[in-house]
Amino acid sequence: MASNSNTNHKYYVTALALYFAYFILGIASSIMGQYKTEFAQAWGSLKLSNGTVDVSMVVSVIAAYGLGRLIAYPFAGPVSDKIGRRISGFIGIALYAAFFFGMISVHNMWIAYGIGIINGIANSFLDTCVSPSVMEIFPKSASIANLFTKFAITLVQFILPFVISLVANAQLSYKTIFIGCGILMIVDAILVLVLPFPKQNKERNIAKKVNAKPKHRFTPSAIASILIGFTSSATFMIWLNCNQELGISYGIKDPSSLQSFYAVGATIAVLLTAQFIHMGLKETTVLILYPSVSIGMLLLCYFINNPMVLYIGSFVIGYAAAGGVLQLATSTTIGFFPDSKGSATSLVMIASSVANYVVLSAAAYLTKVTGGDAPRMIILMNIVITLIGVGLAIIVKKRGQTESKNISS
Question: Where is the Major facilitator superfamily (MFS) profile domain (predicted)?
Fold first, then answer.
């Protein structure tokens, strides 16, 4: 790590600026799902046979976010490791500002699709800056520091429905939220340019590469850990972006309220999981336990057609799927690639990006071809993917500890 804990105090403001960027990222990752009808109408969407607006094109644009991440991660990791965390972070935050201002300025689905890709590219560069940086700033609690990036996201996703309600009650356009977030990202980009970052000790890493075997091994458990980036992301992305339609089909009048239960669950999960890890719970145990809980809850939501079950389900899915599993998978993967933290982050997030694009594109397709049955079909798809994630986590748990020791020796 770059420096001792006393010296690292000077980087705490930097950490705060990076966590704030993730706070706004939380809005960017869910705001489109809250205004699907408005965007569909702005892009000239037609109505379905039941009289509702066809929002499938908006779901497709949300899926483009994953495509953008997939495009950028192979470059974002090396930029972070070789050029610097600051540059990677600045690019990400600046592109987020472009996303917020751009999305409300277009009236064509395909241009919006391109801006959705920019959203994903922004996420890529921010991820490969923030996760390694906070782990370097807080080396003694690296997994917990990375876990709190999720806390920043879940906190804003809890607040967001109230902000949406305030904007609506004030008879302001939904564009107000986008403009405000764009301005905040510009301010944060300036802060990232001027605040200090920990040194990456590149000279030490070069010496290691010359004098020792490189600590990069694609072992079975390392590959499984990377692939959890796909499964863990799919579980909460599907729920986050498709629960409103499920809520409507189960008779909930204001399905946006499900978002609050989801966010509360995720926020509590981050705080409790951080404490559990501090007390000695292994990250690999969480990677098995939490997705297993998600599967049980998704099954209940499928078989019990009741609004109350969905409220409980939103809380539980928020806790077990969105409460830091992806971040812990990232921390675990970094353990297999200790000399290339940015690139290791990229590998997990590439898997996450594929999930975002593939599963949301599949959800859009199911919405189009199955109509009213789509929400329940999407739940089944989610169950299968999450079950695969449990299998991958078992591989990491059984083989990962031995392999990680071998890599470190």
Answer: 14-401
Query: How far apart, in whole angstroms, are the C-alpha atoms of residue 80 and residue 349?
Result: 14
Is 162 exposed, middle or buried (CB count within 10 Å of its CB: 0-12, 13-18, 19+)? exposed
Nearest to 307 by CA among 244, 395, 360, 265: 244
Give the separation between CA 234 and CA 120, rounded to whole angstroms.
Answer: 15
Nearest one of 247, 356, 236, 265 to 301, comparing CA atoms: 247
* Separation CA 195–CA 9 (nearest Å): 13
- Digit-coded pLDDT (tens) for 247-273: 888 888 888 788 888 888 988 998 899
CA Rg value for the chain:
21
Token couple for 233 = 């992301």
**Domains in the chain and their CATH numbers?**
7-404 (1.20.1250.20)
> Using CA atoms in the order 405, 393, 130, 159, what is the torsion angle rounded to 10 degrees?
-150
Global pTM?
0.75
